[in-house]
Design goal:
The structure holds two protein chains of two kinds. The N and C termini of chain A lie close together (about 5 Å). The radius of gyration of chain A is 25 Å and the shape is globular. Chain A is mostly helical. Chain A folds into two domains: about 55 residues, no CATH class; about 230 residues, MetI-like fold (Orthogonal Bundle), CATH 1.10.3720. The longest helix of chain A has about 35 residues. The relative contact order of chain B is 0.14. By secondary structure, chain B is mainly alpha-helical. Chain B has a single domain, classed as MetI-like (MetI-like fold, Orthogonal Bundle), CATH 1.10.3720.10. In chain B, about 60% of the residues lie in helices and about 5% in strands. Chain B contains 13 helices and four strands. The chains are: A mainly alpha, B mainly alpha. At the A-B interface, α1, α2, α4, α5 and α6 of A face α1, α3, β1, β2 and α4 of B. Chain B: This is Sugar ABC transporter permease.
Chain lengths: ~300, ~325
């Protein structure tokens, strides 16, 4: 990539020719209004479907069917309760939280460990291991999904661990999530660990810190910005994952939120409670919205920055 | 520091490598292996059929039509997304008011970015719930309701959107191969663009901001208009970012199964009558198709062919768009 220099050059350039200034100024105002109109139109195109769908969760089914564009006569919150209990959204939500607590923690730990060793310790086969991880970035998940199902099923049976890491187990899904998050996490953190200065690490090891202590007490704190970016990326990615749980979690009480909601949506013609479906969607959107509100800069720079490496 | 180096490296790599090899690499390798067999997914007894599954792919009319659909997505989706993202990034960064310090970004540009990027973080389930209802083919759908209230659509004849299998171009048949662009597919592309523009806008916008201001000042002093500045200065400097976006969108266009599964009718999506089927969605459906006893192996062969096509495409695009001379600034 082209090296980007963030030199905020002081605007000490010669002042613009005075005769040209008023013309430029007027052109500037026109361009400004022009820009805002186009940006606002796209902003509305993005937000209107979202807001419209959220509003549906406060309506009665009669209003949803016969007055799709109107606001609710009365803002009802009952659909949220029905979605949480009868629509199983509450159960799906808790399943997702449990799995993500394990999978994001392990992804970060294992990803950082592998990336750190590969970035800072030259050894024979280092590049091979690194490229093995990165190769996973080029292959889509669905390509391995059919044998993955068999593998999870057969391996857990062979080990006698069906109830622990087999199909329909939280731990089984956690391990799969961690494995599929490795390529990007290792790739991202590898680049990050390489940029950290070596002097502090050297000083610490002179002071007698071992490899493990050096990693946890010196390098991990220094890598915090990188860990936060990739952590958020993994939270969003794993929260939104639907193909892996669709194949691996068939028991209705073990389903993930995205998977469960998608099944509710695709069976919507049998659905008699539309408000409940929209309320379920709103509930599913809230955690992501919260993360996005809190960390949108890191989300934006993390997701797009990674594209360019 | 010297002592304990090897055990440390091995200890730190063991768990990540083990998980990755077992759950990611082995399934990929087994996909390649099963594609050469007549394995049905259950029976432990199966035989080798060589490239038989691959030859049968060339006779599978739905698959051949799905390739055509991917080709349509591949043409429309990246071009429209990149053009819109470039346009809005330009509006955000250079469309702002000029003052003594040069041309600045418009006010509220981070709010715009916040809104535009948001669909990118939504799961396919949320997108499916929203857009199924927006596109619904009766007066309960958002677009139909709006158009009906404006009198643009007859209440008796609502637009079908996701249920419309008619092609917007005259279908082209070449032997078993079909190229058509059903309305439902166009609707999916629209949703993909809705979700994707914000991402590439942020990408291009960051790139534009990294271009030093003095280049713009020099151009302005030389009397260049904003439009000239964009085409002569900004765009050439963004070349590399656009080519990366092109490759990513190309890969996404060959993927595309999430929207098909989430939004279109039929078991596993792809309907109506396979009008929205793309290669990956047809692969997932085929694996458990009852009309084929060896559907599993057949689907594996299909997966391999998609992976091959994707790599070929990425390679071609990479060669086509790679900048020969790199601009350093």
């Amino acid at each position: 990539m082209a090296t980007t220099v963030t030199a905020d050059a002081p605007a000490a350039a010669a002042p613009p020719a005075p005769a040209a200034a008023p013309v430029k100024q007027r052109e500037g105002y026109a361009a400004n209004a022009f820009a805002h109109i186009f940006l606002a139109v796209w902003g509305l195109l993005v937000t209107i479907p979202l807001i419209w769908a959220v509003i549906q969760s406060f309506k009665t089914d009669d209003e949803i069917i016969h007055d799709p564009l109107g606001l609710p006569e009365q803002w009802l919150f009952g659909a949220f309760g029905r979605a949480w209990t009868k629509g199983n959204i509450g159960e799906f939500f808790l399943n997702t939280v449990i799995v993500l607590l394990g999978s994001v923690t392990l992804t970060m730990l294992f990803g950082a460990m592998a990336a750190y060793v590969l970035a800072r310790y030259p050894f024979r086969g280092n590049r091979a291991v690194y490229w093995m991880f990165v190769a996973g970035l080029t292959l889509p998940i669905y390509l391995g999904i059919l044998p993955l199902f068999l593998l999870v099923q057969d391996m857990s049976t062979a080990l006698g661990l069906e109830e622990v890491i087999g199909l329909n187990t939280h731990l089984g899904l956690i391990l799969v999530y961690v494995a599929y998050s490795m390529p990007f996490t290792v790739f991202f953190l590898h680049a990050f660990f390489r940029t950290l200065p070596t002097t502090i690490a050297e000083a610490a090891s002179v002071d007698g810190a071992g490899h493990v202590r050096l990693f946890f007490q010196v390098m991990m704190p220094m890598a915090k910005p990188g860990l936060i970016s990739i952590g958020i990326f993994n939270v969003i990615g794993q929260w939104n994952q639907f193909l892996l749980p669709t194949v691996l979690m068939k028991d209705s009480d073990k389903k993930m939120l995205t998977q469960g909601l998608l099944e509710l949506a695709t069976n919507a013609r049998y659905e008699t409670d539309f408000a409940r479906l929209f309320a379920g969607m709103t509930i599913a959107m809230l955690p992501i919205l919260a993360v996005y509100l809190g960390f949108h800069r890191q989300v934006q720079s993390g997701l797009t920055g990674a594209t360019l490496k | 520091m010297r002592n304990g180096r090897a055990p440390f490296i091995a200890g730190f790599l063991f768990a990540p490598v083990l998980l990755y090899v077992v759950y990611v690499l082995i399934p990929y390798v087994r996909t390649a292996y099963f594609s050469l067999t007549d394995f049905n997914g259950f029976s432990p007894e199966y035989g080798f059929v060589g490239l038989g599954n691959y030859l049968e792919l060339l006779k599978d009319e739905v698959y051949l039509r799905a390739i055509g659909h991917n080709a349509v997505v591949l043409t429309v989706f990246p071009i429209v997304t990149i053009l819109l993202a470039l346009f809005f990034a330009f509006m955000l960064n250079v469309g702002g008011r000029g003052d003594k310090a040069g041309i600045r970004g418009v006010r509220g540009s981070s709010l715009y970015k916040f809104i535009f990027f948001f669909p990118q973080v939504l799961s396919i389930a949320i997108v499916a719930v929203i857009w199924r209802r927006v596109f619904q083919s009766n007066d309960g759908g958002m677009i139909n309701a709006v158009l009906m209230s404006l009198g643009l659509v007859d209440e008796e004849k609502p637009l079908l959107f996701l249920a419309e299998s008619d092609s917007v171009i005259p279908p082209i048949h070449l032997g078993a191969f079909t190229l058509d662009a059903p309305v439902v597919l166009i609707c999916l592309i629209a949703v993909a663009i809705w979700g994707g523009v914000g991402f590439y806008l942020v990408l291009f916008s960051a790139a534009m901001q990294s271009i030093p201001k003095d280049i713009y000042e020099a151009a302005t002093l030389d009397g260049a208009t904003r439009v000239q500045t964009f085409f002569r200065v900004t765009l050439p400097l963004l070349r590399e970012h656009v080519s990366v976006a092109w490759i990513y969108l190309g890969i996404a266009a060959l993927d595309f199964y999430a929207l098909v599964i989430g939004l279109t009718p039929g078991a596993g999506g792809g309907g109506p009558n396979n009008a929205s089927e793309v290669m990956s969605s047809w692969m997932l459906t085929s694996a458990f198709r009852s009309s084929r006893y060896d559907g599993f192996a057949f689907a594996c062969a299909m997966g391999m062919s998609i992976a091959l096509l994707t790599m070929l495409l990425a390679g071609v695009q990479f060669r086509l768009t790679r900048s020969r001379d790199k601009l350093e600034f």
